[in-house]
Design brief:
By secondary structure, this protein is of the alpha/beta class. The strands form 6 sheets. A 6-stranded parallel β-sheet has the order 11-12-8-13-14-15, sandwiched between helices. Helix 4 packs parallel to helix 7, helix 5 packs across helix 11 and helix 16 crosses helix 17. The chain is globular, with a radius of gyration of 24 Å. The structure holds adenosine-5'-triphosphate (ATP) and magnesium ion (MG).
């Protein structure tokens, strides 16, 4: 769609620090390697790199405008226009916000401690099956790619908006106080959901009340006349929702949207009846675990609030597929693997172990767990508690990796596991080797840990024979 210089200045409040050729530019990029002819290069200062150093490179590659927050020599800028702003990261958000307001799609924003990406993928799958104002939405829904949910990722997502888009589904993530508020200002959502409030990112947000305050910013920032989706089964979310005076769609056991008759379908997914007021429909979900049924209810609530039909919800949920390493079901020599190695915190560990316990059959259940990061002072206790929960899941073996492995082990032993059932491994390869000796056809393996633990390597090493 491109930008005029006047739009860039209006969006960012910046000044022309040095006029260049032309006043109409192409798309906005932050990575100099992605610059094309006539691009606008926004020079971000990250933790490791300051992209002001790459402005010269961007201009050589064809950038015609640079948005910067510190002066640069004329030689660096070449023929490009330089727009000076107070802070380029803020300017990137402002540009994204400008485009969002100009194109005015319906914006659905998703935050929460767990299940954001899953809910986002599910709602996008539903919308693709739906109609709005009598027209199909297929190909007209923009969604966050992967996990682009921070102060860089969200703007880059919204900057991909074009005239064909009727709906945007965006994920908002947070590590520090104030981030959701800013992301929500940028996205200006018509509909917002907080999937859950749980112990995650506690180093920045301190405790559950801090997490709730941070996530609560999304409900506060929903547009006037907008709708929020409220998970009544999460006490913190319920409380945040109660403070909201606008339109609400609730879900959970006592919600307007409810799942009844829930069961696991041959370790392939979940089946349930979705009730919405007097309407009901049967949902076949290709995801495992009760937590994913909760995510599906949240996705359904968002989609219904956006105006699509219950039939579209049914079709979309049956087509949605787990994102990589989120409870991804794999098979190796007749052994079922639940690869949930994308990330972990106490809530998601519990959900994953419950899912493992829910799988029927005669085979053994084994869990391979890595440390949960970012728990601050609560870390030791949370890992001992994890050991207890693992023991309750009736697993035959528990393999552990990481600095906190001994804490998990002590929790598991105290809760009744035998010492030879709980093994602290030295690395991924060693764990894979031991697993190969223990696993038999029909067994089930759960693999999970925080991102930095790279627990997927256990699965790779296991298959690598
Ligand atoms: N509703 C839920 N309750 C508890 N755990 C969940 C829930 N949904 C997903 N999880 C767990 O969280 C993991 C990550 O899922 P997902 O990527 O959807 O979450 P996210 O909120 O986007 O995470 P991130 O903060 O990394 O962006 C899953 O592998 C699963 O273990
Ligand atoms: Mg995510």
């Amino acid at each position: 769609m491109g930008w005029t210089l006047a739009e860039i200045l209006a969006a960012t409040g910046g000044k022309v620090a040095r006029p260049g050729k032309g006043s109409r530019y192409g798309e906005i990029v932050t990575d100099s390697k992605q610059v094309k002819r006539n691009s606008i290069f926004v020079a971000l200062k990250g933790e490791r790199h300051d992209a002001h150093r790459f402005v010269g490179d961007a201009v050589r590659r064809g950038a015609a405008c640079a948005v910067i927050h510190r002066p640069l020599p004329a030689a660096t800028l070449g023929g490009a226009t330089a727009v000076r702003v107070g802070d380029t990261l803020r300017a990137l958000g402002a540009l994204a916000h400008y485009r969002r307001e100009k194109l005015a799609p319906k914006v659905l924003a998703i935050t929460g401690s767990n299940g954001k990406t899953t809910t986002k993928e599910m709602v996008a799958a539903i919308l693709a099956q739906g109609r709005l104002d009598g027209r199909s939405l297929r190909g007209r829904v923009l969604k966050t790619e992967g996990n682009f949910n921070n102060l860089v990722g969200l703007p880059l997502t919204l900057l991909r908006l074009n005239k064909k888009h009727r709906v945007a589904v965006v994920e908002l993530g947070t590590n520090f106080p104030g981030e959701i508020q800013r992301l929500a200002e940028i996205a200006d959502p018509d509909i917002g959901i907080i999937t859950s409030v749980a112990a995650a990112h506690l180093e920045g947000l301190k405790n559950l009340a801090g997490v709730a305050r941070e996530k609560g910013a999304l409900y506060r920032c929903v547009r006037p006349g907008g709708t929020i989706a409220v998970n009544l089964d999460d006490p913190w979310v319920r409380r945040l929702g109660a403070k909201f005076s606008g339109k609400k769609l609730t879900y959970g056991a006592a919600g307007q949207l409810r799942a009844r008759g829930l069961r696991m379908r041959a370790a392939r997914g979940m089946v349930f009846e979705l009730h919405h007021g007097r309407q009901q429909t049967r949902i076949r979900l290709g995801y495992l675990g009760r937590h994913n049924v909760t995510n599906a209810l949240g996705a359904a609530a968002l989609a219904l609030a956006a105006g699509v039909s219950l039939a579209a919800v049914r079709r979309g949920l049956s087509r949605a597929k787990p994102f990589t390493m989120r409870m991804q079901r794999e098979n190796w020599r007749g052994i079922g693997i639940l690869n949930d190695s994308y990330n972990a915190n106490p809530g998601s560990m519990q959900a994953a172990l419950e899912t493992l316990a829910l799988i029927g059959g005669r085979g053994k259940k084994i869990a391979v767990l890595g440390d949960m990061f970012e728990l601050g002072k609560r870390s030791g206790k949370a890992h001992r508690e994890l050991g207890r929960i693992a023991a309750q899941a009736k697993i035959a073996g528990l393999y552990l990796l990481g600095d906190q492995a001994r804490q998990v082990r002590s929790g598991a032993l105290r809760a009744g596991m035998k010492s030879d059932q709980v093994i602290v491994g030295s690395d991924h390869g060693e764990v894979a080797m031991r697993l190969r000796q223990q696993l038999r056809r029909g067994d089930w393996l759960l693999v999970k840990g925080s991102r930095g633990m790279k627990m997927e390597k256990v699965v790779q090493e296991l298959k690598n024979v």
